[in-house]
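Fold this sequence, please.
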Amino acid sequence: MTPRHDQFTLTRDIAACRAHVWACWEDPALKRKWFVDNDSGGWSLESYSLSFTRGGRETGVWNANAPGEPWHGRHRNETTWLDIA
């Protein structure tokens, strides 16, 4: 069997009510506050956008100023929401 690496599913138990968790994923300003603006020093944001709908996309580009570290440089995230349950 050949493994597939182009799709995966994430599940997580979060100690918060469902409405608050959903709002933090659905509202671009709240998601950005949690996912983007909570980075430690040395990271700078180039761009970020979110459309949390089936078939929607989440994209972001960050730069890590960490010379000599394996995470130094430009990082890009591109997510397509295939299903939201």
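The chain has a mean pLDDT of 86. The radius of gyration is 15 Å.
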